[in-house]
Request: fold
Amino acid sequence: MIDDTLLTDIRSRFAHVAACPFTGPRVFFENAGGTLTLSSVVETSARFAAIPDNQGRANGAAQALMDVIARARAAGADFFNAPDGQVIVGESGTELLFRLVRTAVTRQGRGVVLGSTVEHPASRSAAAHWAGVMGLEHRLVPHDDALGLVTPEAYAAAVTPDVTVATILHTSPVTGMGMDLPSIARAIRAVAPEALIIVDGIQHASHGHIDVAAAGVDGYVISPYKVFSRHGYGVAWVGERLTDLGPEQLHGGPARNWELGTRDTGAYATFSDVVDYFDWLGGQVGSAETRRGRIEDAGRAIRAQETRLTEAMLHGTGNLKALAEMPGVHVIGGTDNQAREGLVCFWAEGHAAADIVERLNTEGIRTHTRKADHYSGNILTPLGRDSAVRVSLCHYNSVAEVAQFLSVMADILKD
Reply:
């Protein structure tokens, strides 16, 4: 769906695509740590940083700022496919997950808090902390080490009628596997229909196709710096059932308000830029007549392009040997896993992961070492590994860049 002509157009819309401003030319395969930034986001950030006016005042500038926020919330509703609820911004994705989990657990104050061992600590730590504060059980559903994901069947086996809050990771930033979110949510609701379900979508967002209506969840959180925007804020959709519990808010302030203090209008504006990009891309690859339809078309195109790239990496391209065929290489989650979303994590016997990453970096290929720490130990320790190499791609990457990576890897593993 994304041919060479469109790929050139796509890449032209991002800053620092082929070169780092500090080190020079490089291939960017560190998208799970933070994607490339849209040039429009850079321009919007500068424009709004210069505006001195505040929202909520009786002047034209204040009204213009409120209009920007309203448009961004409407765009966010289309992005999440949210028929109701609120789109809000916060300090970060992690902060928003903690806030939503805190509200759900403390306001209910009873039952079991359910999560899984595949989760990033952003949701897992929040659930563990507030379950502990309230004296509740925090039950973890075991993930499948071989597949690098947690299944709906595993959730179904663990859920009980006393589950009041559940967390789900949409995509793992370590294994790269996407969870079957709608099926997991259905498995929970089949036994605990009133449970509040909060989703960590931080890693999934750049791959497109978020649909909270179809998933039937109560909260969904993303980090915009991992979906073509900048650092400094998070975005969440919060459903009505979660808001009904009563978020923390200023006494005498607007009812049902999740946002504390004056929010950054530039954050909202740059999130609009992200949604506009999905809208534009969908228009290049499909013929949908609505913004939501074009966002869905963009998600399908992104999925197809990233599958093409990871297939080239895992199974070879041209005359280059596939990563999976190189001596001593082990790919987390297997080489033919249909749940993979633009990320390959591996180790090579006899080669330290940090050394591989350093060699790749020397050759102008940016990757990352995942260590068995509080971020990735839940995945790596059961596999008996202290570290692994993460190669994370996005739809703006090319097969030529994959070929460059494979060529360098072949040289590294010959040493």
Summary: Residues 106 and 133 are 9 Å apart (CA to CA). DSSP finds 14 helices and 15 strands in the chain. The first strand starts at residue 19 and ends at 20. The radius of gyration is 21 Å.
